[in-house]
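Researcher: Next entry in the queue.
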Amino acid sequence: MGTHAGPSRISARDILWRLINIVVAALWIVAAAFHFVDGSFQTVMPGVAILIVGVASIVFEFWRPELILENCYFLWNFMGRGIFFLLMGCLVMGFRVVNYVSSGFSWFFGLLYIVLWFTSFALFPVANGPRPVV
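Model: Structure for this entry, 134 residues:
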């Protein structure tokens, strides 16, 4: 008889990482909204991309489809998440204060994740990271 694994418990540390990811993604969404203010094609298109990535980042903190877990492996370890945050911080950067704040948070936590990659033995910052392929 197979045993049924119950729901996994999420530690306080995992909740903290998820909360950080959600706050940074929410700041991306706010910064994306300010990209629409100018109304020119050059500012709207990056705003659309930032908006999609921000919403997807928040959704994937709560719901993780297997396809995303398998193909976006870099998001489930500290180094990958850190580089992703650094790149998003560059994309979000603009001329408004909200863009500076959003990119600053993104860069700070991106660098923090990269430092944690080298100082921590935990490869997956979240509870439901990918499982090794056998």
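Model: Residues 12-119 form one domain.
Researcher: Noted, moving on.
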